[in-house]
Amino acid sequence: MSKLFTPYQIKNLELKNRVVMAPMCMFSADTNGHANDWHFTHYAARAVGGVGLIILEATAVEARGRISEHDLGIWKEEQVEGLKKIVDLCKAHGSKVGIQLGHAGRKSEAMSEPNIGPSAIAYSDDYRVPVEMTKEDIKNVAEAFKEAARRADLAGFDTIELHGAHGYLINQFLSPLTNKRTDEYGGNAENRSRFLKEILQAIKTVWPEEKPVILRVSAEEYGEEGNHDVDVANMIKDLKEEGLDLINVSSGGVINVVPRAYPGYQVKFAETIKQITGLPVMAGGLISSPSMAEEIVQNERADFIFLGRELLRNPYWCLQATKELRDEITWPKQYERAKLK
Ligand SMILES: Cc1cc2nc3c(=O)[nH]c(=O)nc-3n(C[C@H](O)[C@H](O)[C@H](O)COP(=O)(O)O)c2cc1C
């Protein structure tokens, strides 16, 4: 028996295994942010393949928070219907479904909208200089996250993930590299995490208590003056009572630096965050080997494994992984004759 294919419960969310599909932008929505046939097929295929938790790609809480003009959106009631269809399709095949709520801030390349950030500093020469957010803007964006969470519940999502990683807006506030504010939203760690705290407080007023909230973080920013795993862990620890149930541990994207990546390169950050915060964590990054995934959960270095590109290559990874791990899971009955012995 493997541990990777054992269930796990967080609040009311019962997951059949520890395999999570990482959020991955498809940049395939129309310019109104509506889901379409691509999304229905793409997500349902991973559910057929046995993934425990599917987390939908970064979905914009505001039109100006899109990474591109073709992001999925959740800033309007009309967007709920398509999202609900994805949820229903995935659940019909036994997966649980989350959605990553995102705001790109200074990294928005949706040129039809102005872009905003904690401070007027561009990501690189190829990006626009964002307009520094006023306190009114901060309040409005927290409200947009709240409304997005309300719509996510309407669509039937089992969990929401706040995109606090990869140098997008929440991360821009958390990082001393991008947040140069001199008011109560900048300076020390408590001030830099105030925006996230206010988002969590706003969400709590609409998101059901029994459904978990996930936070994705960049636990290492790959800049000496930036946040490192212990800094991020301490910020999470201070916020966990505001309603954080699970941490999805990633890294990078805050500054224009490419880290040296190898299978499992982010697992050590997940371990630190698990240890310091006491919260369950997801670990991943270039993982494709079932045995490696099993080692990480078996040794309690993380509670879940997220797979990104491997699941793009192989939506049926779970069905095949059980062979290597000498385990058995239920195959869709239509595929049973293909079961690997
Ligand atoms: C096509 C693609 C789109 C991505 N979009 C997102 C996203 O929307 N949100 C996010 O947090 N990470 C995003 N990522 C990062 C993945 O979630 C994941 O962390 C990364 O690919 C490393 O895992 P992997 O090596 O298993 O692919 C994306 C990655 C890829 C390849």
TrEMBL record:
Q: Which keywords describe this protein according to UniProt?
A: Flavoprotein, FMN, NADP, Oxidoreductase
Q: Which cofactor does it need?
A: FMN
Q: Which GO molecular-function terms appear in the entry?
A: FMN binding; NADP binding; NADPH dehydrogenase activity
The NADH:flavin oxidoreductase/NADH oxidase N-terminal domain extends over 3-327
The organism sits in which domain of life? Bacteria
| Pfam families given in the database record | Oxidored_FMN
List, alphabetically, the NCBIfam families matched.
PRK13523.1 (NF010047)
Q: What is this protein called?
A: NADPH2 dehydrogenase
